[in-house]
Design a protein that fits this description.
Blueprint: H1 2-5, H2 21-31, H3 44-63, H4 65-69, H5 78-103, H6 109-117, H7 135-155, H8 161-190, H9 194-213, H10 225-230, H11 238-256, E1 266-268, E2 273-275, H12 281-291, H13 295-308, H14 310-331
Antiparallel strand pairs: 1-2
Helix pairs in contact: 3-5, 5-8, 7-8, 7-9, 7-11, 8-9
Bound molecules: Phenylacetyl coenzyme A (FAQ).
Length: 332
């Protein structure tokens, strides 16, 4: 499985024999499941890969607030509004834990945000789809947070201490997010009107395939998996997690009475898991290249929010400077 997993980079992963002494000692610590901490020596590639993955993950949490925030003002009840507000606020917190973890690797938050705003850094493809009806809020919780949890639970065991610890806190909150989404859909599908159930089905039809794309390209096309798995920055391959997600989600859809929009979805007795249809990879690559339905809007909203907050950041800096000056004067 491992050997055939990544055609493009598999041959670039060094064996222990090919490493110098320092690299070998580092790899042996990873193999023994000893966490790497920010001040420990690490190969430059390990540092860069972590910065790339953690910052993209942080950007996803922050940009991921936007599609759901669209429905805060139109939530159907006060209770649903309060729940959605809490969830969207949690996403900001997740972004902050992750930016902090990445900062320990020698990149500043301003640099990471510059990379996001200039389009140099990616964020998850899923947040470039529009939220067209209230059921989308439920579907995002159920499918999007569900896919995120499937990916993030193993990342709690990631080799880099600060990332692993951030994931432990994040996963606790994500499970609440997923349950609130499923609960909203239970209300619509099992206790709601035929119109509400139709709304949920429409939402399912639009989000199913993009949710599967969240796990990244197929193993055969994943550029980074082989090295990232050798370093335990990733614990499972993209296809392994995608399969687990499908297997977990099909019975949940059945309980809701929703049809998964995939005519090839079928239980495979021999494999003990579901077979499913081919993902439209051309759509995935269009979205990650910036050409999805909402890429431009998401970025302009983020940049505007950043610019609008300039006066507040200036105020904080001025206050910190004044406090430091007062402290210095008192000590003199
Ligand atoms: N979207 O070689 P691989 C959330 C890029 S959860 C965009 O397989 P890798 C919670 C990839 O960066 C969502 N780009 O790459 C929430 C690379 O491009 P690069 C975030 C993608 O890194 C819920 C290229 O394709 N979760 O936000 C995607 O080994 C609700 C080649 O791919 C994480 O970030 C994609 N879907 O594996 C918030 C989890 N997939 O960088 C609000 C941590 C791949 O060379 C509301 N990240 N690419 O330019 C990971 O586990 C990995 O980075 C993967 C990709 C699995 C995403």
């Amino acid at each position: 499985m491992y050997a055939q997993m990544v055609k493009t980079e598999a041959d670039k992963v060094k064996s222990l024999d090919e490493m110098d002494e320092q690299e070998r000692a580092f790899q042996e610590r990873i193999d023994a499941d000893i966490k790497i901490e920010p001040k420990d020596w690490m190969p430059e590639g390990y540092r860069k890969t972590l910065i790339r993955q953690i910052s993209q993950h942080a950007h996803s949490e922050i940009v991921g607030q936007l599609p759901e925030a669209n429905w805060i003002t139109r939530a159907p009840t006060l209770e649903r509004k309060a729940i959605l507000l809490a969830k969207v606020q949690d996403e900001a917190g997740h972004g902050l834990y992750l930016y902090c973890a990445a900062e320990t690797l020698g990149i500043s938050r301003d640099q990471m945000l510059e990379q996001l705003h200039s389009g140099k850094a990616k964020y998850s493809s899923i947040f470039n789809y529009p939220t067209l009806n209230w059921a989308d809020v439920g579907t995002i919780g159920w499918l999007v947070d569900g896919a995120a949890i499937m990916n993030q639970v193993p990342l709690q065991r990631c080799s880099f201490g600060p990332y692993s610890r951030a994931m432990i806190r994040i996963c606790k909150e994500e499970s609440f997010h997923q349950r609130q989404g499923y609960d909203a859909l239970i209300k619509m599908c099992l206790e709601g009107t035929p119109e509400q159930k139709a709304m949920a089905q429409d939402s399912m039809n639009r989000w199913w395939w993009p949710a599967l794309m969240m796990f990244g390209p197929s193993d055969a096309d994943s550029v980074h998996s082989a090295q990232s798995m050798a370093w335990k920055i990733k614990i499972n391959s993209n296809d392994e997690l995608r399969q687990k997600f499908v297997d977990q989600t099909v019975p949940q859809a059945e309980y809701l009475g929703l049809t998964i929009p995939d005519p090839d979805l079928k239980w495979n007795e021999e494999k003990g898991s579901y077979d499913f249809g081919e993902i439209d990879w051309s759509e995935f690559y269009q979205v990650i290249r910036g050409n999805g339905a909402c890429n431009k809007q998401r970025m302009s909203d983020r940049v505007r929010a950043w610019d609008d907050g300039q006066w507040y950041r200036d105020g904080l800096m001025a206050h910190a400077k004044k406090q430091a000056e007062r402290k210095a004067a008192a000590a003199a």
